[in-house]
Amino acid sequence: MSDDQFNDIMNFLLLLRTATPERRVSIMRSYPNKVAYKWVKRYDLLVVSTSNTLIYKQDSGAALDSCLRVAHYSNIFDVV
Asked: Is 0.70 surpassed by the pTM of this model?
C-alpha cells in the first residue's frame, strides 16, 4: 500500500471516530465510488493512548494478537 493511500485511510477512520452520526453520513458520501464503505468494511483502527494502528478487520471474538497490521512502503524500507 502506498503511503498516500495509507494516510488517507488512517485520516478517514480517525475522522469517523470523532464525528457525530449525521457528520459520518456526509463524510461517507463525500468519497467517490463508495470507497469509504469498502474501507470501513476492510480496515479498523486500533487506538491505544496516542498510538494509532491500522489493522485488517477480524472476526468478532478473535484474539487481539492475531490481527494483521497494514503495512505501507515507508514502513517496509525503514527496516532495510
From this structure: yes
